[in-house]
TrEMBL record:
It catalyses: L-threonylcarbamoyladenylate + adenosine(37) in tRNA = N(6)-L-threonylcarbamoyladenosine(37) in tRNA + AMP + H(+). Pfam families: TsaD. This is tRNA N6-adenosine threonylcarbamoyltransferase. Binds 1 Fe(2+) ion per subunit.
Amino acid sequence: MTLILGLESSCDETAAALVTADRAIRAHQLAGQEADHRPFGGVVPEIAARAHVEALTPLVEAALAEAGVSLADVDAIAATAGPGLIGGVMVGLVTGKALALAAGKPLIAVNHLEGHALSPRLADPDLAFPYLLLLVSGGHCQLLLVEGVGQYRRLATTIDDAAGEAFDKTAKLLGLGFPGGPAVEKAALAGDPKAVPLPRPLVGSGEPHFSFAGLKSAVLRARDSGLYKAEDIAASFQQAVVDCLIDRTRRQLANVEASALVVAGGVAANKAVRGALEALAADHGLRFVAPPQWLCTDNAAMIAWAGAERYKAGLFDDLDAPARARWPLDPNAEK
Ligand code: KG4
Ligand code: ZN
C-alpha cells in the first residue's frame, strides 16, 4: 500500500506523519510552539522558523520509528510548500527535498490549504466530490467548491480578517491568552451569547464574502465600556461569528450542487461552529462532514493525505519547487 511521509511547518506547529493511500495513519508526530510565542501574544515568524529547524528532523525520525519503517519504505515525500510564514515553509520544504533526494523518492509540494481541504476525505472514506467546503483557519476564511484533487473553485473569501484571526484578536483584547480560539471557546461556555449586542458584518448581503474587522472593533468597544463580563463578550462574539459563517454558507448552498457540507481548518475545532453547520446541513438534507478536532488544527497527517491523493493522480513536483508565502488554491482567485 502506498505510504506517504508528510511534513508541516507553515505556521507554529512542526509535524511529521505517515499515512497510507487506504487511510491508515501509521504515525502522527507534532510539536507545538505555544510556549515560545505566548510572551508575545502571537506567532513570531523568526522564532517559529528556528523552532521548526530544531524540531523537524527528530519528528521525522520519531514518525518512522512509530510506524516501524525506514525512509526506503516510503513511496513519496509530501511537504507543505505554502502558503504560510516563509521561513517555516522553507524549513519543511527544504527538509522534504533533502529526504527525497537522499532516498531517491518523489517529492510532492503540497498547498497547506489543500491539506485542510482534503483532510475530511482522510476522515471519511465516503466523502465524494464535489463538496462545499468552509475553510476556516488562522489565515483564511473561504467557501470553496471542491471538485476534485487540485480542482478548487473559490466562491467567497474574507475582505479583511480571517475567522481564526478574529478569535485570536478577541482573546487578546479580553486577556484570555494564546492561542486564542480555544481560550475564547472555553470562556464562552461560562457566558451568555445574547448579553452583548454585536454586529454581524455582511449578513444578508448580496455579495458572497465574509468580514470580521468590524466585529473586532465592536468587541473592543464592549470591553472598554466596562459594562460586560469577559465571558459574556466571548460568548456573544462566538455567536456573532457563527451567525456570519452560517449566513454566508447558506447563501452558497442555494447556488451549488454538492454531495456534502464540509468544514475544515483550525476554527472547525470549535464546537459551536460545528454544531451550527451540522444543523444547517440537516436543514438542506445534506451530509455534514467535519474531521476530528486534532485533524482540524495544523498537522502533518493532512499533508501526507493530500500527498496520497496527489500521488494517486500522478501529480509530482521537481526539486526546484518554490516555497510560497502566498498561494491561492483557486488560480482564478487573486487573493
Ligand atoms: O488551521 P490552523 O491550525 O492554522 C492555520 O492554518 O491558520 O488554524 C489556527 C486557527 C487559530 O486562529 C486558532 O485560534 C483557531 O484556528 N482555532 C479555534 C479553535 N481552535 C483553533 N478557533 C475557535 N475555536 C477553537 N476551538
Ligand atoms: Zn492551517
